[in-house]
Amino acid sequence: MTDLVAEFAGWLTDFLPNDYYERYSEYRWDLGLRRDHQRAAFEAGWLQPTWSREHGGRSLGLADAMQIRLESAMRSAPKLPNVAGVGVAAPGIREFGTAEQIDRLLVPLLRGDEWWALGMSEPEAGSDFAGLRTRAVRDGDMFRLKGRKIWTTHAHLSRWCTLYARTDPDAPKHRGISCFILDLESAGVTIEPIRMASISDETFCEVVLDDVELPADNLLGPCNGGWQVAMSSLNHERQMIWIMNWVEIQRGLNSVRESEATDDYAAGELFAELGSLLADAEALRATGYRALTNELAGRPSPEADILKLLGSQTLQRVWELAAAAAGPRSIDDADLLFERQDALAATIYGGTSEIQRNIIAERLLGLPKG
Amino acid sequence: MDVGLNSDQLALRDGVRDVLRTECPPAVARQAITDPERWRSVWKTVVDLGWTELALPSADTDGSFGRMELTVVLEECGAAIAPIPLLSSVGLAAGVLRAAGAGVDDVLGDIAGGTVAALAVHPPAHRLPGVPMTLEGGRVQGRAVTVPGLPRAELIVTLAASADGPVAAVVRVGDGVIVHDAECTDPAQPVADVEIDAEPIALAPVDLESALATPLVAAAADLVGVAGATLARSVEYAKSRQQFGKPIGAFQGIKHALADNYVALERARGLTYAAAARLDDAATPHAAGWNAAALAKAAAAEAAVGCARAAVQVHGALAQTWEHDIHLYLRHAWQGASTLGDSRALYHVVGRRFAGSAA
């Protein structure tokens, strides 16, 4: 362990309650603890380790930052309460925002004082994100927004939303989209939470925009440059997703190991799949590092594109194995039910597995578009 | 831990790849199936270029030839389906010897100089490699099956149980060694069963897990190469073959199968490089090194067989023909997958160990 990782580990240990690991299944839902953890991480510079001190970091290199993230994952640090804000909106604001936008928005986001939602999906635009229909029409210094967003996680608890809308209906579909910073308290915004099938607290919302007026200053990035903002932001998300998957996979593997079953099927039948999942977990880590090594050396890192697909598939398999290992006890285990349901979301959010396979086949292997 | 290739290793890879492209196109593997002597000219080139020196723990005074370099070279040879005993002699046989004591150093030197050795570690009726021989009264005795490269070898490296624990033993092919040639899946890389009752020419004590770890990683590297080359053939064909008015690679049925092949390939490559790096790190405990090597071998075999099977599907009826190259890759993949433990058996062992370990 490097001095830096040791310093981080010491900080985290000091922060966490003494009984954190014994009562993890309760603490994982403790919003107060998770909020406190985010703020403390921001102040200590562990939240976005590559960023400057004022933005919750320590100006670390990518390799050090990954070590911190992995250490944090291995120690099951409290999950960020509004991960879309820190993981997706914040990198977008930092990369594309004006000085005024960064100055107003970034610190409250990173401290967790203001939550963010991602206004991407629409009823008719899921994987086909570029087919979105929400319109933004210029009107002097303003834009007028009309449309409907859905599966917008945490909109009901958020102050802001990165909202993607069509600003040029005549341009090819990828080139007529802009990204706006929408104050969700604006007139004409209606937010309806959608009840989740699981006990997830990452509640979806429907967001209806009925002639919402938005100052032109609220564009994030250039007008009609929304596709680039989205792709860059999602790229940040994908880099975080595999580490999130990886830690959940570790938890699932431990759950298999702790199975109470004692009959003939308790163990032997599970071992080969367990070994295969251990290989997946190690492959994720090794490939994540290999991609980083290439990135640092200025070489292409195509292997990074497998991380989302492999991580999400592995996550599902590991929790199914955990359910098998638990036998009938899987039926009355609410935590396990949640893990299995949550794992099923992993091959959907942040770009479905089908889209990931298209990306690998077309961009990496060079196969023609369908 | 840094588990990518550095620029020296990338240069080594490119150099090896260039040599093989001219010296060893797939047609050479095809010729080796029917001509048992075809491998010799390629082998001479390989020995002259010094690739066999990778058998030694470090060929340079700065110790820069580690398992990572061996991995890089074997991956390229696998990609070329080169019908040479580099894997069987330098990767497998020398791989065991480098984990053994000083008693076998001279043999390592011979292998590094181009003498061909084979590794006999499959006891009859076992899925996993083990200790097929005994050492008693100064004689190595026992039977081993499917010894990779044995028909081309002068020396046999094996593992034997002795009163003082397991040893790596070396015998010379000749008196007291009966080789049973067999028809094998991949005749370009022939294997044979062996019965031994002979005095060893060299002996040294070994730790079994440490002895088998390097061979497992070497076998993994070869299979990663096969997987990558096979996938490249599928991609090339899927871009050019037209049906329903467009390349078949434009259909998601093909596209997604090949994307999954790519995931399996990079998963295996990641594990293989990581395992090689672990074995090069003297601080790695033997059990952890063996686990990493076993997972790499299991994953690489899955990738190679998966890519080869998909290649057959993508090439359709063409792949059923002798004239087309795909069966050469498939044969190599299937044979390699069953060498040193099939994937399920290897996964099983590592899974069992994990389940039995403390949380």
Indicate the topology.
The complex is a heterodimer of chains A (370) and B (359).
Chain A: H1 3-15, H2 24-27, H3 31-44, H4 62-74, H5 83-96, H6 99-111, E1 116-119, E2 135-139, E3 142-149, E4 160-166, E5 177-183, E6 189-194, E7 204-215, E8 219-220, H7 226-257, H8 268-296, H9 306-326, H10 334-346, H11 353-364
Parallel strand pairs in A: 1-4
Antiparallel strand pairs in A: 2-3, 3-7, 4-5, 5-8, 6-7
Chain B: H1 7-23, H2 26-34, H3 39-48, H4 67-79, H5 86-97, H6 105-112, E1 117-120, E2 133-136, E3 139-148, E4 155-162, E5 165-172, E6 177-181, E7 191-198, E8 202-205, H7 208-240, E9 242-243, E10 246-247, H8 252-280, H9 286-315, H10 326-337, H11 343-356
Parallel strand pairs in B: 1-4, 2-4
Antiparallel strand pairs in B: 2-3, 3-7, 4-5, 5-8, 6-7, 9-10
Helix pairs in contact in B: 1-4, 4-7, 5-6, 5-7, 7-8, 7-9, 7-10, 8-9, 9-10, 9-11
